[in-house]
Amino acid sequence: MRANDALQSKAHIEPEFAALCDVLSSSLAQLEDAAHSLNTYLRHTEIDPARLAQLDERMSQWLSLSRRYKRKPEELHALYTSWQAELTQLDAASDLAALQTAEQAAAKTYQVEASAISKKRKAAAPKLASSITQAMQGLGMQGGVFDVALTTLSSPAQAGLEEVAFLVAGHAGSTPRPVGKVASGGELSRIALAISVVTSQLGSAQTLIFDEVDSGVGGAVAQTVGKLMKQLGHDRQVLAVTHLPQVAACANQHWVVAKHSTNTNNVGSTSSTVTPVVGDARVAEVARMLGGASVTDTTRAHALEMINAI
Fold this sequence. Notes:
It is a single chain. By secondary structure, the protein is of the alpha+beta class. The chain folds into 4 domains: 45 residues; 39 residues, no CATH class; 90 residues, no CATH class; 107 residues, 3-Layer(aba) Sandwich (Rossmann fold), CATH 3.40.50.300. The chain is built from 11 helices and 7 strands. α5 crosses α7. The chain is elongated.
């Protein structure tokens, strides 16, 4: 009504406002008729007190749940739906028949996969044992034997149907026993190298790192170790930390790792350097490894001979 009055007060400015005032007046009259009809309907409508009480109770519960679970009233339906989904999952988890069926299916799948692994193990074990035994002969362990024992387990395990153990006999005539119980430190190093040589030929690793794997060996065995590492380096990268000149002489690249201590203003510090050596510097380093701090013409000549012999 205020809009109609405002528009009528401006009718003298724009004649078209008069027609718009007529439209608004007609609309107001229709609105008043509708309101009158609704009031008449309400006066003649009987409201069910029980239904009102029921709606009031539900509204009260709705607001009470909202306060209890600290959620807005409009969020309660989504919360209820999520709880229903969780309850369905819990019901499924407690379904013993379904669980037994799933367990039987999993056991069947495990048996198939584990049997396939066992078959491959039984085929590979003698080949691996033979190859490592052969490699041991050139590492100062003549007559030594390496064996792979497969012991069937009483119950299935994560690793399969059998336990795998590495057995070794360090010399001819001895009975193979677990490698950790019969091998000395030097023998362990050589066995580890033999395993690395054999398995690396089957694996796909592009870089092999040996940290003093030649510990406890020397002489001709050390030279064999160096040649084996050089053999591995033909088709992959081999990094070796060694103190043996026989091994160092077999390398394609030679770096010297050294520590240096300094004292500045009564504060000591230690740093390490890694320096490549080539040519005469490499010959001098191999000679130092041969003869210690004092390098003579003899040790230098021996070092040059070792490098050139590879």
